[in-house]
């Protein structure tokens, strides 16, 4: 269908949103007399809609009747006031935030089990016993 193809072309050109409405007797449908194709984000009311949305209307005279075409496009250069951007932190900062810096504890070398230091009196007693 032409409506889908043209809407895809508009969106590939960089639009934030678009809408194509085809209506009239020439629309091949038993019930609905309007076809509507939309994609992206398009403001329908308010200052943004009135100021920045580009609109066009035209009519085509076919054998089966007149067909009206309305096109609305929100260009990519419009900065919306309700736009939210989430900044991604670099991976290094994320890793540092997840693992807090641990303070390095000073580890004292293990003491070896050594013989008890002999006092002067014990040494004298031992020498006295050796002399006997």
Architecture overview:
The protein is of the alpha+beta class and 132 residues long. The protein has a domain at 2-74: Ribosomal protein S3 C-terminal domain (2-Layer Sandwich). It is built from four helices and four strands, in the order H-E-E-H-E-E-H-H. The mean pLDDT is 80.
List the defining traits of the structure above.
Ribosomal protein S3 C-terminal domain; four-stranded antiparallel beta sheet; alpha+beta; 132 residues; rod-shaped
Quick structural summary:
The protein is an alpha+beta fold and 132 residues long.
Structural class: alpha+beta
Distance between the termini: 123 Å
Tell me the CATH superfamily of the domain at 2-74. Answer: Ribosomal protein S3, C-terminal domain
Q: How many strands, which pairing sense, and closed or not: the largest β-sheet? A: 4 strands, antiparallel
The number of distinct helices, counting runs of at least 4 residues, comes to 4
User: Low-confidence runs (pLDDT<50, min 5 residues)?
Assistant: none
Task: Please compute the radius of gyration using only Cα atoms.
Answer: 42 Å
Order of helices and strands: HEEHEEHH
Mean pLDDT: 80
Classify the fold: give the CATH topology of the domain at 2-74: Ribosomal protein S3 C-terminal domain
| Bulk shape | rod-shaped
Percent of residues in helices comes to: 25-40%
CATH class of the domain at 2-74: Alpha Beta
CATH architecture of the domain at 2-74: 2-Layer Sandwich
Q: How much beta, percentage-wise?
A: 25-35%
Work out the number of β strands: 4
Sequence of strands across the biggest β-sheet: 2-1-4-3
């Amino acid at each position: 269908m032409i409506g889908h193809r043209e809407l895809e072309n508009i969106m590939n050109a960089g639009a934030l949103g678009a809408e194509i409405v085809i209506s009239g007797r020439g629309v091949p449908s038993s019930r609905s007399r309007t076809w509507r194709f939309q994609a992206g984000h398009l403001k329908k009311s308010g200052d943004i809609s009135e100021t920045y949305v580009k609109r066009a209307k035209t009519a085509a005279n076919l054998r089966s009747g007149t067909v009206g075409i309305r096109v609305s496009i929100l260009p990519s250069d419009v900065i919306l006031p309700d736009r939210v951007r989430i900044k991604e932190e670099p991976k290094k900062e994320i890793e540092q935030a997840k693992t807090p810096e641990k303070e390095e504890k000073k580890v004292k070398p293990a003491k070896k089990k050594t013989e008890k230091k002999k006092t002067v009196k014990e040494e004298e007693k031992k020498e006295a016993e050796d002399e006997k």
